[in-house]
Amino acid sequence: MLLALLLAAWPADDASLRVVPLPAEPTRKVRVFVDAGHGAPGNEGNHGCYCQAEQDHTLEVADALAAALSATGRFEVKRARTGAQRPRYQARIAVAEAWKADVIVSLHSDARGLANGFPAEDGGVCWRNSDAPGFSVLWNDEGPALPARERLGRLVGARLRDAGFLPYSGVDYADLYQQDELEPAGWIDRRPLKQRVYFLRASRIPTVIIETHHALDVLEVARWEAPATRAAFAAAVAAAVLEHQRAAASLPRAK
Q1: Closest Cα to residue 177, out of 169, 187, 185?
Q2: Residue 33, φ and ψ in degrees, nearest 5
Q3: pLDDT score, position 255
Q4: What is the mean pLDDT of residues 47-62?
Q5: Complete domains list, the chain, with CATH
Q6: Are the C-beta atoms of 6 and 218 separated by less than 8 Å?
Q7: Does the pLDDT value for residue 3 go beyond 70?
Q8: Comparing 126 with 121, which gets the higher pLDDT?
Q9: In this structure, are residues 78 and 34 in contact, taking their beta carbons and an 8 Å threshold?
Q10: What secondary structure, in 3-state letters, does the chain show?
């Protein structure tokens, strides 16, 4: 009920966001592999302020992003999962590499900090915390593909900030991630090697994870239900990927 009330009050055209213009037409369509994070067997991801599963949020945003990218005519898009599919992460990477994707964009949400419990409709407990809003962009700094990962991650962070999205402060990341020296929204995995995010380090394709928002924050959840938010997000990602690919145009594609 509370979410419905918040959505009713949320402006259809959020004045804090803007649609970032796209750069020049690429010489060929850019291949983007869009991953709806989690949704693997036994892996729903976090549960937000209404007990909503992260895998459901990422699937909805991936649907919107894939449609928006395709509609520009500048991208070829392949989805890591659709509908009730539950592919393992290893299979997703294999598909992206076989398809020769130019970039991989993986969508997630965060659940941060100390939260308070609230009764759920089913008699359980949902958790809320409004003290850590914002998005972040994660990438891996291992191996020879680092310059391309850095470029993609920094451009995604910068264009999302240009669009009006708030970068997360990183206060709850502690020693897990290190903030990029140039992009305030960019974070590099700093855990021991075997504990680092598999999806970021397993592929030779430039890959970023976008933590779209804080899933325990009622206002952020409401904002991400609004079509204007998803449209601004898609435009920013599109602009970043096109800029990245233009810079990478002289480099050989992943084999």
Answers
A1: 187
A2: -95, 110
A3: 44
A4: 97
A5: 28-247 (3.40.630.40)
A6: yes
A7: no
A8: 126
A9: yes
A10: CHHHHHHHHCCCCCCCCCCCCCCCCCCCCEEEEEEECCCECCECCCECCCCCEHHHHHHHHHHHHHHHHHHCCCEEEEECCCCCCCCCHHHHHHHHHHHCCCEEEEEEEECCCCCEEEECCCCCEEEECCCCCCEEEEECCCCCCHHHHHHHHHHHHHHHHHCCCCECCCCCCCCCEEECCCCCCEEEECCCHHHCCHHHHCCCCCEEEEEEEECCCHHHHHHHHCHHHHHHHHHHHHHHHHHHHHHCCCCCCCC
Q: Rounded to the nearest 5°, which phi and psi values hold at 35? A: -105, 120
Q: What distance in Å separates the CA atoms of residue 109 and residue 86, rounded to the nearest whole number?
A: 18
Query: What six digits make up the tokens of 20?
Result: 């970032």
Distance of CA 132 to the CA centre of its chain: 17
Please classify residue 199 by burial: count the beta carbons closer than 10 Å to its beta carbon, then call 0-12 exposed, 13-18 middle and 19+ buried: buried
Beta carbons of 103 and 33 less than 8 angstroms apart: yes
pLDDT, tens digit (0-9, with 9 covering 90-100), for 183-220: 999 999 999 888 899 999 998 899 999 999 999 999 99
Mean pLDDT value of segment 98-110: 98
Has residue 244 got a pLDDT over 70? yes
Angle, in degrees to the nearest 10, between helices 218-225 and 2-9: 60
Please check whether residue 180 is in contact with residue 154, taking contact to mean a CB–CB distance below 8 angstroms: yes
- How does pLDDT run across 147-187, given as a tens digit for each residue? 999 999 999 999 999 999 999 999 999 889 999 999 999 99
